[in-house]
Design brief:
By secondary structure, the chain is of the alpha+beta class. It has 31 helices and 17 strands. Strands 3-2-7-6 form a four-stranded mixed beta sheet. A four-stranded antiparallel beta sheet has the order 10-11-12-13. The protein has a three-stranded antiparallel beta sheet with strand order 1-4-5. Helix 18 crosses helix 19 and helix 20 packs parallel to helix 23. The longest helix has about 30 residues, at about 140-170.
Length: about 725
Amino acid sequence: MLNEVIPAANASSLQKIFAQEWDKNLKPLPKGDVFKVCVSAAEPFVDGVSLIPAEHAAELRKYEESNGFSFPGFNFPSCLHISKIDFEQGYLAAYDQAAAEAAKGLDDKKRGRFVSSSLKKSFDRDKFTDYLRSAFQEDTTEAAAYRAKALNKIEKCIKSTAANLGEKIKAAALDNGNPNYLALCERLEKISPEQFFNGCFAYFSSLIDSHEAWERYCGFIVQSAAGATLFLDIRDYDDNYKSVAHGQTVKWINSALLRLNETQNRDDEADGEDAYGNPLSGCNAKMPGVRVGPLGDVILRSMVKEAPCQFRYGVADYESFPVGDISRRSAKLALETLAQDQFKGKTWNVMGEKELLFAYPVMLTSDIGNDDDDDMEEIFDLGDIPAAGLFTDGPTAKDKADFAALAGQVIAALSGISRRLSTIEIKIFALKKMDKARTKVSYYTNFTADHLYQCAQEWSEGCRNLPDNLRRVKRWGDTKGEIIEIERRTIFPKELYTFANKIWRMDGGGSSPSKKIKSMDGLELLLKNDRAFAMNLLAIFISNTAPLLALCGECSRRGKQVIGDKEEDRIVNPAILALLLYKLGCKKEDYMNSPVFKLGTLLALADSLQYHYCKYVRTSEEDRKKNIVNAPVQLVGNSMLSAAETRTRQTVGILGARIKPYFTWAKTDMGEDMGLSRWMLKQLSVISSELNESPLPETLGPIEKSELYLGYMAGVSGKATGENENNEGGKQNG
């Protein structure tokens, strides 16, 4: 991981926008509610509790040398050893036996809702307080063991960890101090863990005067999944200085720790350089961790001793790949900068399951000296370049922007850095969470902005590699019942992974997930020209999505342009198919003249003719006025698509026999849409003649299957004679 992050740390274009550097032991608070608990000098030693706003809590950090023991913020061990639902059910058993009996036969989920609802109805403050106190005073072996464990944690947090932090702040010898922090530490020195624990219970229990208050503070009283995070402070603080629970106080603590680290590194400076050319000092310490968006805590690692190959030469860990403190801090700071929430869709974005992709531009140092000063801007705003969004699925999850439009925005922003795109390199790496403790680099590449420009142009052309009547698509508008026609957008690389990994049922009515296509395959397809790779993707894609493509074509024959919750699949999948064909050198000018594509259009025409027959022969005039057509569930052409894949040459003959009744009717049709009937007959004759001149293959490969389904979806574009025929023909060809 360090090899992927260090280049960002060394990039001069990023260094001036680095995030605040934090000491490795000063860690963010857990997500969720954080309560400020004010410590008093007299019993009950707690004289204030308030919920800290989320934006304020994000500025606070806790000093944590070892997991679970931190200061001045820490996870408070609940006062009771039992769970919330068991406590509530016990209260009901004492004061509402009917509700308690009714809850016994329910499963855990229903029981939890029922008990909480019953407690809300029967809540009585005096009874609840009495029951709470009796539970706290319970004298059992289990309760005693839990209490001892809780007191041990509190002792390590407010005594040991607080003392260690105080010694480090004192050793840093900062010119400015914070008397409020010192006052908090002095009060905690005089309080025993048991006094603090009892004081917290007394104060929290006094706050519970309603069911709503119980729901708010129950995390401090009973065990729950969310737990309770508190941050210590004092109520009577000196107004001339910031309170302890303030971002500026946390920064003051951080500056003391960083200053102390620098002093110690100078004193302990070892001879030699680490693997990255920086001083070797600090290479034997534990690697720092970084909070990386949705991945959570990620520990920077070099070579780990768990890999047996490291012991081949008798060395492991830092001995085989030494990384000093300066390199570690630089890597940590670079990753924290790239992973900031404000840069989502810019420098990072979600790629796969528990996987993040990072992308950022840097200037190629070998070219910097050759450019004029006015030809480039070495420092730039990462927030203006949505690189990560371009390589995933857009800047934000809700954004349905077009890839081509976003690529133009990225290229324009990069052109503002340097007029020579070849002097800008884009670095990409992806981190994937293996389990709670381990994270691996799942992907890494780099390329010039000039290469990106060329690849983006080719990608956009590929997504437009469709017959003209498939280039536009109808979908729901903003108003209920409104249908609008839009240009089919170019897809994002991640959408190949998202949409192609659905195995559709034979009727196209639903899908199940697949993992054959990897999260980075779309990015590989964008950046590289690998025919074998593209062919493999096409084989998987057409196998997975053929039923949906067939359904899209049949709905078009029936005049149903929007397919419920599959609308986005209907928009994206044809573009993926067109792109893969383009990557294999099959452009629409060529494949639309292939016999297999024409076979697909022949099947589409057969469906149109059958549907037209059903509309005027099998459907009453009253139903036609309601736009109801008495047609089979599956039309004849659609039913023969699967057979066309394996018995291609026999398909035309079988189709001719099956549509003979409709063909005969169309010849004699004298109804209001007879012009459309004659036009269909003519098109059937023309395509059949063309197929006689161009022999069909015996079976179809991935490319031929794609041509078949594209031909079926596209149908035949053309105009019949007469106004009604134009309208109906438009419906059939969509």
